[in-house]
């Protein structure tokens, strides 16, 4: 073996090319191996074959997936969307029922619009996922609509209800309300066929059922009896079917009180309403958590009554879950002549 062959080395410590003449990496000509002729590294040395620029991107495992944020579309909620909202935060369902043109949608719109027109003691607007829906039903009641008279958008006839969401800061505590709105035609059908009440999910789930007695209908000599009779039959139907929870509160509200007061027979009309409430209270007071009668004018037809008359007091009852004792001044209450009718079962309304 020549001197040159004896001194052949390889940078790979495991290669025996100096002894066998064969490259461990399979090079047919050992000299073509990039490690041929190099010395194996010592234990404190490291071979760097290639220098690479550091990557500007973070390691793949550190890349966080973007968080998905649900953005409300702003319109009134359907049943699926209402359920999704309830899965995120607790809310009280307020079911407002009554015949066609009784003022259901106007009342919902007014409850929202009050926060834009006046500051209410201890109550502050705390957001809504249905702002577009609210603005849509409020538009015709505002001067900017240039409508010939104060009116509201008609609720479409549909098989399912729609829900308007309103968050309210009440003395430092946030509460959320879901107002159920459904066409009056469907509620009228319950009076004719009680079994239809089973399909009105908003009634079985509500914290407060607000039954509207149409003041305009009460002013009509030809409609007066029918208005009271239909309301009486509606209550009979839902209690016959057990639709309303015993934990719910029942409010019976005379809408459009401005028309009643301007009718020329206000005393007789108020008396007819009072008698109906007394009858309902005697029949159903033991089957709900509480009952109360009120009078409102959400969108008065004339200048004599302020818009939203009585609605703030009604809103406070809704926020209280129907507990009436600590949330209304005596001037806002329709005091029943019978003590048993004034309040129902005791509870904190929460």
If you had to describe this structure to a student in words, what would you say it looks like?
There is one protein chain. By secondary structure, the chain is an alpha/beta fold. It folds into two domains: 1-49, no CATH class; 79-341, Rossmann fold (3-Layer(aba) Sandwich). The protein has helices spanning 3-6, 17-20, 79-88, 104-117, 131-138, 184-192, 201-205, 215-219, 224-240, 257-261, 266-284, 311-319; strands at 92-97, 123-125, 162-170, 173-181, 208-213, 249-254, 290-295. A seven-stranded mixed β-sheet has the order 2-3-4-1-5-6-7, with helices on both faces. Mean pLDDT is 79; it is low at 1-5, 43-48, 143-152 and 324-350. Strand 3 (162-170) and strand 4 form a beta hairpin. Helix 4 (104-117) crosses helix 5. Helices cover 31% and strands 13% of the residues. It is rod-shaped.
List the helices and strands and how they pair.
Blueprint: H1 3-6, H2 17-20, H3 79-88, E1 92-97, H4 104-117, E2 123-125, H5 131-138, E3 162-170, E4 173-181, H6 184-192, H7 201-205, E5 208-213, H8 215-219, H9 224-240, E6 249-254, H10 257-261, H11 266-284, E7 290-295, H12 311-319
Parallel strand pairs: 1-4, 1-5, 5-6, 6-7
Antiparallel strand pairs: 2-3, 3-4
